[in-house]
User: Which sequence fits this backbone?
């Protein structure tokens, strides 16, 4: 096994984690009607995937002029 094989395995594992997280979010959407709960889950997953970062989701108001 060489370095390229290790990088490929790591890359595949990353894609696997992303796929699983996406599946979890989709299931969560089907179970919950509260947008704030769903968005909170997305934020927590994004922060979990990138521990040195903070995530936020900005929502435009009805007039689409301010957040």
Assistant:
């Amino acid at each position: 096994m060489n370095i390229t094989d290790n990088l490929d395995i790591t890359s595949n594992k990353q894609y696997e984690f992303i796929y699983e997280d996406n599946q979890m979010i989709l299931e969560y959407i089907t179970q919950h009607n509260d947008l704030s709960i769903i968005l909170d889950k997305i934020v927590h997953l994004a922060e979990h995937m990138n521990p040195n970062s903070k995530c936020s989701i900005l929502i435009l108001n009805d007039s689409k002029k301010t957040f």
